[in-house]
Write a structure and sequence with these properties.
It is built from twelve helices and nine strands. The protein has helices spanning 3-22, 27-38, 43-49, 59-95, 114-128, 142-145, 179-188, 229-244, 297-302, 319-327, 334-337, 340-343, and strands spanning 132-133, 139-141, 171-173, 193-202, 214-224, 250-257, 260-269, 286-295, 311-317. A hairpin with a 2-residue loop joins strand 6 (250-257) and strand 7. The structure holds phenylalanine (PHE).
Length: 346
């Protein structure tokens, strides 16, 4: 074979391989190209394995030429490979491009417990009416829970509250927020005062859909000169109007509490049936929402006020109960079971 023939042939190998490579567009085709143009049985590799058949004097030059081709093809392969990878990357970047008009994903946030939401509404309303918010202790003495509230030891009315006693004599978990009335009065007497007292209460009761051993109450107290039952009714009527954000029909039913006289319970017209009667109001047309009354003279005195000079009113309500009525929640146990499926709805 002529020297030029062989060298031309080797050149041809390179040109032909590069022509084919031009058309290659993906990794798979590139790999196929590598196998057939740089693999063991590729033309260029054949030159090396057949080199012994070349006349001895031509071998160095043929070897060098073949090697150049091999290096050139390897370079071309690398370039092509880089190009394909770059193109793939650009494609992903382009298709993943940020669409700023798309609505964002809302990060998971905590929320405010439904009982606390109602409590906050209550604070806001009474705050607007000029009531201060007081905190009173949850672990109370028997004296504040009962005695100062006109229930001496063995008074039968104590049975209205199933009490958790502690190992400490005369120390109980408060069964209602009413002990706070005495604290507020003693702190302010003889000045007039308007306050609400929110907080946890505890009752030794069978837990059921309607009663929990732990729940919130909000106590309301106003002491001053010439405060009348009319003021009580007006204040509470205004309160429910603001709470339900409309004019609500109410009624006051006579009731008994040892610490108020006269005492009443306030009902609001059932907002599910509008007073027609339905399962929510148990066909009464009315929903009981709080207990109230005029502060009893004995309690007034225990609070440090002269009952001949001062009068006042008090009320106690359960925010969980109000939340249940507002949202038609049928089981009070949801409030403390910490079930996210319940809590998420508020
Ligand atoms: N403390 C009473 C209860 O727990 C409610 C109440 C408060 C009634 C203030 C009258 C006045 O049932």
């Amino acid at each position: 074979m002529e020297q030029t023939d062989i060298l031309q042939e080797i050149q041809g190998i390179q040109q032909q391989a590069l022509d084919v490579l031009q058309a290659v567009e993906d990794e798979k085709a590139l790999e196929a190209w590598r196998v057939s143009h740089l693999g063991r049985s590729s033309a260029v590799m054949q030159v090396f394995s057949q080199i012994s058949k070349v006349p001895a004097e031509l071998r160095p030059q043929v070897g060098q030429e073949a090697n150049k081709v091999k290096v050139a093809l390897e370079d071309a392969f690398q370039q092509k490979s880089d190009g394909i990878k770059q193109a793939a990357l650009e494609h992903t970047l382009k298709s993943d491009v940020l669409d700023v008009t798309m609505p964002g994903r809302r990060p998971l946030r905590s929320g405010i417990h439904p009982a606390n939401q109602t409590l906050r509404k209550i604070y806001k309303i009474f705050g607007d009416m000029g009531f201060q918010v007081y905190r009173s202790r949850e672990v109370e003495t028997d004296a504040f829970t009962f005695e100062y509230l006109n229930m001496p030891p063995y008074h039968p009315a104590r049975d209205m509250w199933d009490t958790f006693y502690t190992t400490e004599e005369d120390v109980v978990l408060r069964t209602h927020t009413s002990p706070g009335q005495i604290h507020v009065m003693r702190e302010n007497a003889p000045e007039p005062v308007r306050a609400i007292l929110p907080g946890m209460c505890y009752r030794y009761e069978q837990i059921s859909a309607r009663s929990e051993i732990q729940f919130n109450q909000v106590e309301l107290i106003a002491i001053g000169k010439d405060i009348t039952f009319g003021d009580l009714k007006g204040t509470l009527q205004d309160f429910v109007n603001r709470l339900f954000a409309r004019e609500v029909r109410t009624r006051f039913r006579p009731n008994h509490f040892p610490f108020t006289e006269p005492s009443a319970e306030m009902d609001v017209e059932c907002f599910v049936c509008g007073g027609q009667g339905c399962p929510v109001c148990k066909h009464a047309g009315w929903l009981e929402i709080l207990g109230c009354g005029m502060v009893h003279p004995v309690v007034m005195q225990n609070g440090g006020y002269d009952p001949n000079v001062y009068t006042g009113f008090a009320a106690g309500m359960g925010p969980e109960r109000i939340t249940m009525l507002l949202n038609k929640i049928e089981d009070i146990r949801y409030f403390w079971s910490n079930d996210i499926r319940f809590l998420e709805q508020f």
